[in-house]
Amino acid sequence: MIQPLFAHWLLLAIFLLVQPAFAQPETNTWGNFQFKRLASGDDDSIKAAVQALKTSSQSGYYPLMQALFNGDLYRSENRTQHQGLVIIGETWEDDYGESQAPLHTAYPEQIPILYETGKPVVVPLFDLIKIESGRRIRTMIQPYLTRMELFHPDSGKRRQAAEILGNRGDSTAVSILQTAIQSESNSSIKRQMLVSLSKLQLHSSDPQTRLEAVRRLGNLNDTFVLPLLKARIKADPNGVFPEPDSQIRDQLHQAIRKLGQFSIFMQTVQTIFAGLSLGSVLILVALGLAIIYGQMGVINMAHGEFMMIGAYTTFVIQELCVGLLPAEALDWFFPLSLPFAFLVAGSVGVLLEILVIRHLYSRPLESLLATWGISLILIQAARSIFGDLTAVKLPQVLSGGYEIAPQVILPYNRLFILALTTLSLLSLMAFFYKTRFGLKLRAVTQNRDMSACMGIPVRRVDSLTFLMGTGIAGVAGWAMTLIGNVVPNMGQTYIVDSFLVVVTGGVGKLAGTITAGLGVGLINKILEPIFEAVYSKVLILGLIILFLQSRPTGIFPAKGRNENT
Amino acid sequence: MNNTYKPYLLGAAIFFFGLITPVLNVLGVFPDTTLNLWGRYFCFAIAALGVDLIWGYTGILSLCQAFFFCLGGYAIGMHMLLKTGPRGVYGTALPDFMVWNQVESLPLFWEPFHTLPVTLLMVFLVPGAVALFFGFLAFRSRLQGVYFAIITQALALAMWLLFLRNETMLGGTNGLTDFKTLLGFELRDPATKRGLYIAAFLALVGAYFLCRFITQSKLGKILIAIRDGEHRLRFIGYRITYFKMFVFAVSGILAGLGGLLYVPQTGIITPGRMDVQASIEIIVWTAVGGRGTLIGPIVGALTVNLLYSFLTSAFPGTWLYFLGFLFVGVVLFFPKGIVGILSSLRTPKLET
Lengths: 565, 352
Known about the structure:
Number of helices of chain A: 21
Distance between the termini of chain A: 72 Å
Helix content of chain A: 55-70%
Largest sheet of chain A: 6 strands, antiparallel
Strand content of chain B: under 5%
Structural class of chain A: mainly alpha
Number of helices of chain B: 13
Number of strands of chain A: 8
Structural class of chain B: mainly alpha
Number of strands of chain B: 4
Strand content of chain A: 5-15%
Shape of chain B: globular
Order of helices and strands of chain A: HHHHEEEEEEHHHHHHHHHHEEHHHHHHH
Largest interface: A-B, 42 and 43 residues
Oligomer: heterodimer
Strand order of the largest sheet of chain B: 1-4
Mean pLDDT of chain B: 83
Distance between the termini of chain B: 20 Å
Low-confidence stretches of chain A: 1-5, 14-26, 561-565
């Protein structure tokens, strides 16, 4: 849809006034003449009119040209309200099956045509005559539309237009790009426009312009222009360079080197970020697992399913909020569901501890198997209740990402999980080392029997540990809804990896879990581009086994005499 | 658990499954499909015996037994595909899936599987070697209990992912299928199926007596000692690593043997047989039947799988619930499984 005239259009208009080269006999009569030619419906007249309007740079023709391009431009004849060219809005069928179309003006801007009573004018589509635009006419219009969109109020359109103009290689777009750059307020789009401008100027006849363009490209850090630059210094079989000037060629070499370094740097940044991101997910998943394992020696095979419970809780809260919250505040469901995710998963966890785990103390292998059975039941329950595929809507704030360089974007949802993991770790540390319960918990972890002798209620500590561990799993599931669908077996995705993290990290030490999680995440992402994802998984397993050769109890083994019991 | 060993019961079972059912099948009373089903369950029972040996007797929980099962299955599958040769859909010497994947020549590691004796040798060598190597690394660094379970589970997961790929030349997700003959016998022929059934049964009986021999020897006592007091045994001076490696290898070979006999009877082997859950299911069979006894895993494998085929047809969708509750229930309330329940029913009578 065309939006009302905004500042960008105004700027374009100002530019056109001060640019004599663009000045044209833009009187109403000239315009009316072109409109008549368009309205005639004769193919050649339309072509001539388009050709004429195209060279005009008055922004007022944009709606009309776009409507012609989209096939929405019509001629209205026998309507007294508006004769001549109109743009139709979205049509609908009335009770008799006839298409009805609301009318819009075609020039100078697209606004609904109203009766004097303020009601929009709607006519049967049948009464209008379509201005046909064949493929050739549309090809004629396309470049015009792109140039005009450099000033479009929608920033996405502006960016796209700038990219297209740069790639098309039409040097006549140089001056309009220069104007657009002056009026552009968004720095990222401005950079894109500068890149496009410089790309066009690479082929300029003026050596000074070319030199400046190369210098600019070298500084703009857009690695996508690398092939273009390389092509300029590649000699053809006769030894002739596309770039004749040797001084500029030197500059090109310099720019290529600079961009190449930047590209490697960015790849490193991205790999590290991907590794940290995966690592943070693994840590978040492994945290609860590690707490429970450290405390009771129980590997909770249903841990992934507690994540799943957290994710489904988020989903349910979202569905409830659709009716309760106003549409613009709907995104608040996400922070709102955090405590619920923790509590629901945590209470199921406590239930599991009381009903099953409590009876299997000092039989770690049996509790491993029992929790596996629980996981089967939970997966199947989720499948019967929710069906197979549901998703939580990504909150608006977390969509998109932070652009650290052109085309290098760090997604906000990944950054969020990174932050969440850090926060969870810090609060757990505070909990372990600053609260009385944390003290008891560490005591039980170190020596269960002695703690019981000292009057610590071991059983209650166990229940609370399970609440914490499974609650954190619920929080992890809550966060997982940001990066994937909510499916019954979603817990299985990271679970084996996070088991490995716990084993590699060592028992009962948060530091071990952090180190192992980050290590596995980073190594995974470093290996992935070299080998494929599957082989890097196999390799990591191999590395872990080798690592356990020298440190069989993990990076940070629990100290004390009871490590072998 | 010598009191559960009843020679006449065992003899009756061997007589029934090894002679009566095949004869009834020849006479047309016992349906082919049921016979085939039982044949497959015997293969599962062989794998379960292996699990019992390592978990029930030695106390080591290995979560990659289904991987060993599939090693045996893939070996015989490769052999049968090579024997299918020009009878495949494309009529080339290469297996069909290689033709789809535009593979020009047979990968080198397929070559040994042209002949059956080498294939059979591989069924024993490959799982055995993998178990010895992996076991050496794991047991040498004294990985035990939960750690070993998780490492083997990760191994199973990694191998599963590897087998899913097309470029590992094992048929990818679709696995190996469309077998025609074994030893020149048509696989579709009821007589061949009967033969395979008897072979599976004999293998099961053989595996049973092998495990019986192992567990009743001095070696078996050491295995039980590892389960009950590993550190004491180590301090006495036993090299526990080697015993563990041995039992891991034997259980791997038994699983491979099960896979070897399983695949000709089902006609397909896919990576789905070796995913994380598959290994744990073998453990359930053992747990349900009663670990630490030799008849337990056999009873368990047969019972659970019969229940599976009954429940999936009678109440679809309830199987996972059932399996889950069975798991939790057995672990919580009947740690000795069906055999344990039966013998505890009988014991009071003997005492009165």
